[in-house]
Write a sequence for this structure.
């Protein structure tokens, strides 16, 4: 899917072409447990979205079931050109509270942060929620299926992990990097 763009007809002027390339990722806050509904509704409307999910085992008294749950509860990521009509389309979606940012205006999330999350999800890398960090050594993983993923190096119980963060929503995921080479960024 592509980001929402204005209807420009068969011939686009250079100005419109430049605007079409200015789609950015934004975090949208949702009502609790509305993430999947918001994501599917926006997808039907043509909005490019991303909802990172992880598998969890939920136990009931008589059975265990694998359930997909959002890695970042109450958040969905959308890629739009920040025109008022696009913002209104997202905000009018049932379950959406607001864009994440000052006064609900939204803060553009750098592409590399979303790409790092997509790499984790697409490669089924086990990840656990981790407290958001602002300090620490920024590193890049070298080699293997996580080549190029950047994050903050942390150590926990003598095990090395890289924390991949989305600054706008102040959420992070920790991944074990045992067996991977890393380099400072």
């Amino acid at each position: 899917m592509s980001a929402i763009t204005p209807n420009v007809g068969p011939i686009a002027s250079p100005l419109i072409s430049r605007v079409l390339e200015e789609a950015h990722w934004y975090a949208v806050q949702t009502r609790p447990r509305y993430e999947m509904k918001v994501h599917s509704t926006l997808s039907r409307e043509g909005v490019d979205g991303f909802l990172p999910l992880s598998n969890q085992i939920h136990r009931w008294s008589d059975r265990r079931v694998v359930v997909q749950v959002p890695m970042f509860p109450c958040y969905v990521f959308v890629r739009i050109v920040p025109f008022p009509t696009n913002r209104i389309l997202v905000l009018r979606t049932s379950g959406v509270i607001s864009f994440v940012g000052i006064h609900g205006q939204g803060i553009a999330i750098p592409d590399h942060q979303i790409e790092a999350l997509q790499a984790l999800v697409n490669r089924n890398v086990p990840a656990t929620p981790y407290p958001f960090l602002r300090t620490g050594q920024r590193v890049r993983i070298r080699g293997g299926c996580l080549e190029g993923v950047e994050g903050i190096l942390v150590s926990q119980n003598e095990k090395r992990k890289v924390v991949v963060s989305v600054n706008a929503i102040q959420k992070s995921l920790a991944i074990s990097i045992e067996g991977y080479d890393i380099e400072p960024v």
Remarks:
- Helices lie at 14-20, 35-44, 84-91, 111-122.
- The longest strand covers residues 159-166.
- The chain has four helices and twelve strands.
- The mean pLDDT is 85.
